[in-house]
Design goal:
Helix content is about 40%, strand content about 10%. The chain is α/β, with parallel strands linked by helices. It has an eight-stranded parallel beta sheet. It has a two-stranded antiparallel ribbon with strand order 1-12. Strands 2-3 form a two-stranded antiparallel sheet. It binds flavin mononucleotide. Flavin mononucleotide (FMN) binds near residues 317, 337 and 338.
């Protein structure tokens, strides 16, 4: 199959993965209204390109939360990414580091912080001076467990902490219920046909070591025996925290903390007041509250609310370079993308990850040029029209 864009990688991933795994990645909450809006709302804003501008040299380089990046894009944290390919997180972090693109490791990943950071640091060209991935945390009732994870991430070299705050309960995902989705994936009579179709995945993942939450295994968490993510969230996640928890994270981490899962300008301002250096505008890729505003629609008001007090990152629905350029015009510093890279890893492993990064880079470069600008850092709202159409 000729891979030209991210949708091609998605189609290939669909062919190569068992249905239950593909749908776990691809799906969203309830009627998937927010999942679809994350994409369709990008179409509501259009470019207003300028001409007679010098675009002979285009720069995609920037800094994100103090870390240099060759492209204004970050791989979003994806729990259990290792379900689509063995050691997917290690492959992703290594490939991202060599392309100069930051990678964020989920606390719920299937590979440990230490192996992922070691893999990324071995690359000659690095996203950050240390080549280190970012680390994403959920707050647990047992704050001592969080402290151990933060210490491990820092010791491994991570510089940026992402605190995800939109997951106090898991979003209701009906595709997973219908498919009888389990962690680790189980081959049942029902999925036997799929197993034959997906022999590569069976050989690589199903017959490999058990897929589990690698960072939680050694903590007193029962991580090894976790059967479902829902059960883990219900048992361990802290549902009672308030803004002081952000201050706690900030003082434990002693580096930039970005809060992920903000959709309201009021919360964005409060997060900055309580120590956030970054605001990640996100609805968890439409996987949590169905009916929530799309990320791109939430972006302008949040950029206006925080001003220059924090960097704003757009997360959700990014599938094209033009999406990233629109978000940057609206004031985002960078974008995060989750599923595109998971599709790429499932479809073609390291090669898929390289292709996905190359596709995004090429599309951003062309869009910046055609808009009449020469640097991602110089994009601004004047290149767009239709901002009022983003209002819900
Ligand atoms: C399979 C899957 C697992 C995810 N796991 C996490 C996670 O562990 N932590 C987190 O903060 N976000 C998680 N997310 C959300 C992503 O970080 C990101 O917000 C979302 O994928 C963005 O939407 P996009 O897929 O349209 O780019 C997950 C998303 C997917 C698809």
């Amino acid at each position: 199959m000729n891979v030209v864009n991210i949708e091609d990688l998605r189609r290939l991933a669909r062919k190569r993965l068992p249905k239950a795994i593909f749908e776990f990645v691809d799906g969203g909450a309830l009627d998937e209204v927010t999942l679809r809006a994350n994409r369709s709302d990008f179409e509501r804003v259009r470019f207003h390109p300028r001409v007679f501008t010098d675009v002979s040299q285009i720069s995609l380089a920037t800094t994100i939360l103090g870390q240099p990046a060759q492209v204004p894009l970050i791989m979003a944290p994806v729990g259990l990414c290792g379900m689509v390919r063995r050691k997917a997180e290690v492959i992703a972090a290594r490939t991202a580091a060599s392309a100069g693109m930051p990678f964020c490791l989920s606390m719920m990943a299937a590979s440990s912080i230490e192996e992922v950071c070691a893999g990324a640091a071995s690359q000659p060209q690095r996203a950050t001076p240390s080549g280190a991935p970012w680390f994403q945390l959920y707050l647990l009732k047992d704050r001592a467990m969080n402290r151990v994870l933060l210490q491990r991430a820092r010791a491994a070299g991570a510089k940026v902490l992402v605190l995800t705050v939109d997951t106090k309960t898991q979003g209701p995902r009906e595709r997973d219920i219908r498919n009888g989705f389990t962690v680790p994936p189980r081959i049942t009579m029902r999925s036997a046909f799929d197993a034959v179709r997906c022999w590569r995945w069976v050989r690589d993942v199903a017959l490999g070591p058990t897929v589990t939450f690698a960072n939680l295994k050694d903590l007193n968490s029962g991580g090894k025996d976790v059967v479902t993510i829902t059960q883990f969230i219900a048992d361990k996640y802290d549902l009672g925290y308030d803004w002081e928890a952000l201050e706690w994270c900030k003082s434990e981490w002693q580096g930039p903390v970005a809060v992920k899962g903000i959709l309201s300008p009021v919360d964005a301002k409060l997060a900055v007041q309580h120590g956030a250096s970054g605001i990640i505008v996100s609805n968890h890729g439409g996987r949590q509250l169905d009916g929530a505003i799309s990320s791109i629609a939430a972006l302008p008001a949040i950029v206006d609310a925080v001003g220059s007090d924090a960097e704003v990152i757009l997360d959700g629905g990014v599938r094209r370079g033009v999406d990233i350029v629109k978000a940057l015009c609206l004031g985002a510093r960078a974008c995060m993308a989750g599923r595109p890279f998971v599709y790429a890893l499932a479809a073609l492993g390291e090669e898929g990850m390289q292709r996905a990064i190359a596709i995004f880079k090429a599309e951003i470069e062309k869009a910046v040029m055609l808009v009449g600008c020469n640097s991602v850092q110089a994009l601004q709202r004047g290149y767009l029209q239709g901002l009022d159409r983003l209002r819900c």
